[in-house]
Amino acid sequence: VAAYRSLGPDPLVRTHALQALPHTDGKTQSFVLNSILQLCIDAHDTEWLSLVLQIFRLDHLDIFRIIKLDTAVSCRDDDDNSEAHIRASSSFHLLRSSVNVVPDVVTYTMLLHLAAQRRDVSSAIGLLVHMQGAGVTPNSSLVAALTRVLFAVDMPKCVLRILEDICPATSAIQQILDDIQSRLPQSSDMPLPLVDVPPTVEIFNAVVDGLMPLLGLDAFQPILHLVGLCSLEPDSCTLQMFIRYLNTTEQADPRTLILILRDITSVKVQPSGRYLEIVLQSILWPGQSHTVSQLWNDLPQPHVGYFRMGSPAATHQGRAGD
Fold it and tell me: CB–CB of 13/4 below 8 Å?
């Protein structure tokens, strides 16, 4: 099913996947149904999405009721009486009574991403409570998805409270969190279920992504400091967000982007084709007189530099004076 996602929703593929569920083990059943779930989310197919949630026995949650009501964006087939549709309906009714597919942490993470898209914090909390009641162990991907829900509904203080829960309890970390909170605009707050997950770069990347629209580049330095205090290192996703922000929001010129890339590239954080694409996009902006040949030799080489704690402007000035 995952292989067919790029080709769009196909009722026949989904139906064959459903029919195979009774002949697989529990873990494979969850994997297959998760693939169909993601396909339905990508296609905004609320009809099939509600069917999948019923097979998962999640049709008593708020997110199911909201999906059932929201049929305006459903990508339904043009012919509801088609052979594929009839076969899918019969497969569903048979599975609903004969197969018990258990949702796993991937299921809840996908649904949290859906809740973030819909700015639906109530459904997100319901999913967390249900997950904990089912004994499903959360992971960093789920916490990252939860932070995106909270940023989507303008609750950054709740995100900071999650960081306070998962990070080591030290005065240095608390001081950084207090400093970030003091710079945030007024926002609503609400109690959250405790999520017992160790801090990871994936979580911090999600936090940076949510803080940038609120604090701009000032979001990077304290979060990178927290990453270091948690004995972690930034990864290529951190670098990509940083460069993308400089390109789209700060409109940094190509040479500045390349010089900054030189300073923050390390053995573990290597530039990829995506970074080169961003640089080339900035070259092609109106008013840019640089050429690819002029800038090619400035691209970062392996094993150079590290993430600095200073601002990009200070980093650029330091490099220019070398």
Answer: yes
Q: Which two tokens stand for residue 114?
A: 């859906």
Q: How far, CA to CA in Å, does 187 sit from each of 24, 98, 155, 161?
A: 47, 47, 6, 13
253-264: pLDDT as tens digits = 777 767 766 665
Tally of CB atoms within 10 A around 315: 20
- Tell which residue, 238, 163, 151, has the closest CA to residue 201: 238
Write the CB contacts of 146 (distance below 8 Å, at least 6 apart in sequence): 112, 124, 128, 162, 195
Identify the DSSP state of 253: -
CA-CA-CA-CA torsion for 214, 220, 221, 224, nearest 10 degrees? 130
Q: Determine the Cα–Cα distance for residues 283 and 98; give it in Å rounded to an integer.
A: 59
* 199 φ, ψ (degrees, to nearest 5): -65, 145
Is residue 120 within 8 A of residue 128, CB to CB? The reply is no
Q: Do residues 191 and 228 lie in contact, with contact meaning Cβ atoms separated by under 8 Å?
A: no
First to last CA, the chain: 53
- Residues of the chain scoring pLDDT < 50: 72-79, 81-82, 267, 286-322
Q: What single-letter DSSP state applies at residue 127?
A: H
Determine contact, residues 175/113, Cβ cutoff 8 Å: no
Q: For 271-306, what is each residue's pLDDT tens digit?
A: 555 656 666 665 555 444 444 334 334 444 443 333
Q: Are 178 and 150 in contact (CB under 8 A)?
A: no
Amino acid at 146: L
